[in-house]
Write a structure and sequence with these properties.
Blueprint: E1 2-5, E2 8-13, E3 16-22, E4 24-28, E5 31-36, E6 41-43, H1 49-65, E7 70-76, H2 80-87, E8 92-101, E9 117-120, H3 126-130, H4 134-141, H5 154-163, E10 171-177, E11 180-190, E12 203-211, H6 220-234, E13 239-245, H7 249-254, E14 261-270, H8 275-278
Parallel strand pairs: 5-7, 12-13
Antiparallel strand pairs: 1-2, 2-3, 3-6, 4-5, 7-14, 8-13, 8-14, 9-10, 10-11, 11-12
Helix pairs in contact: 1-2
Amino acid sequence: MAEEIQNGYAAFRDGKMTAYLLGDFSVQPWGRCGYVYLPGYALAEGESLKTLQDLYSLLGEDWVRMGIFSHGLYISAADADVIDALFALGFGKERVDALLDLRSAEISEPANPAGIDIRLAGAGDNPHLGNLSHVIMEALANAPNWHPTIPEDWEELREGWAELADDPEWTVWLALEKGTALGTVSFCPEEESDTAMLVSPRTSYLSVAATLPQARGRGVSTALTLRGLKQAQNENFEICYTNWISPNLPASRFWPRFGFKDAAYRLAKRIDPMIAWTKNH
């Protein structure tokens, strides 16, 4: 038996809960989006995966009635059967959340690529970081992802990147050549919470990473990343957390090289908005 609860549904057998699916929604520049985060799903041992499929059918129907046509479910990488069950409903992998155990990782000290200065960013480096703000959004707009960043957000994005140089919580590594910023890799401490299931004590979040396309192939991204990971390790961080969009092929092929292991995925499904006027209610 399925029962509606706030922002989701739960399944019960003989008065005991056997599964639940809890969602939330927000308005993003690309549309109204419904999300189920990692704490938002569970299936009791021995229960059929069909139960979660049925719960999504109920929650997804609520979202569609509200005009929410972009659905994203965060699922643990360990739940391969759940992932397969959602793939059968038309979901695909959109984002990878990954962890690196700094306690056991062997991180080498890289040499600087020829002619390139790699250093920590600080006061006055705001323009350098701002000038790199377009790299990720342009990468995500390319094949095979084709995700747009609307022009109205470009300046805010630039300002946000520039402000990292002044934020004491952030550790920002910069690569420069003749006064021009070629790339950056930036970290910040990640705080534990009841719902941050991938965050443990002493977790460093590798949140921002970008290298100009014309500078790739020279070891810039590798040198920046190794320096940042080594510093996090020296500062006794135990875990490094990062994420990337899986159709962003350069990112998907780059980060696993450092030992990052898949921990969770955002599975995505896009609903044809024509359903709003073609379906009989």
